[in-house]
Amino acid sequence: MSGARKTLRGVKTMGSLVDLRRTRTAAGALLELSALANEKERLNKELTAAARRQAEIVERLKEIAAKEHRLQGFVKEPDMVGIVCPQTPPDTGRRIKAKEIRY
Predict the structure, then answer these.
(1) What HEC string does the chain produce?
(2) pLDDT of the chain along its 103 residues, tens only?
(3) For a FRET experiment, which of 11, 37, 61, 78 has its CA 20 to 30 Å from that of 85?
(4) Is the entire prediction scored with pTM above 0.70?
(5) Which of 32, 12, 37 is nearest to 22 (CA)?
C-alpha cells in the first residue's frame, strides 16, 4: 500500500476531464470563472457563519464561567446566598400544598 492519502481532488472522473476541456475556450473559461465565483461566495458565507457561531460560543463560555464562579461562592460559604441574591426571600418555614395526581 502506498503511504499517500487519496483526496477528492485526486480522483479522475469524466467531470474533471470536461472541466479541463471546457477551459480551452473563452466561453468555457467564463463558465468556470462563474462556478469559481459561486463557490468562493459560498465559502465566504460559511466563514462568516462560523465566525458568528464562534463568537456566540465564546460569549456562552464566559456566561458559564461567571455562573460557575457565583455558584462556587455558594458552595464555599452557604451564607452568601443572601448577599449574592438579595431578591431571594428568606425561608419562612411555610409548607407548600401539593396535590397528588392519580390516574
Answers:
(1) CCCCCCCHHHCCCHHHHHHHHHCCCHHHHHHHHHHHHHHHHHHHHHHHHHHHHHHHHHHHHHHHHHHHHHHHHHHHCHHHHHHHCCCCCCCCCCCCCCCCCCC
(2) 455 566 666 666 666 666 666 667 788 888 888 988 999 999 999 999 999 999 999 999 999 999 988 888 777 666 655 665 555 555 555 566 667 777 6
(3) 61
(4) no
(5) 32
